Input
Amino acid sequence: VEKIVIHESEALDGKRRVLNDNSNRCLHKLESRMVLCNKSSAGMRKNMEKRIKAYRRYMDELLERLEGQKERNGAQIEEWKKEHLVQIGFFQHERLIHLIVTAVFALLEIFSMLLAVISQGIFSLLLTVAVLILLVPYIRHYYILENEVQKMYGQYDRLCRLS
Output
């Protein structure tokens, strides 16, 4: 079992935390900047799901620690806000690409269904089933991306309230 490794620097008590994960990605903090790196391009959809969830969990834990502190480093919070906006931008881009792909597959499904009704052939029925089998995971993946990005917006709002 591979791991997503999260290195926390001085801002998080200098502790190192490891999350069990089947991902080829790492999430680490270098000089107070969150860096997500891709070690492999295999299984991008599953890895992206794990990556966004790991990042969101990391930020949730960071926010809980910060909200529990009486004195906060304003400059450090500003850095986290900037980096969080960068990560939101990456995930928004991923979400947009998957929205386009999902919409294209949905249109293909509609056209293949129309073809199946018009031609009533076995090939058109198989095409309809094949496109539907591909469409369902795309819808699920887009749903996850959309919900996680929405949660990240809430995290950014919490960061803004801390500064």
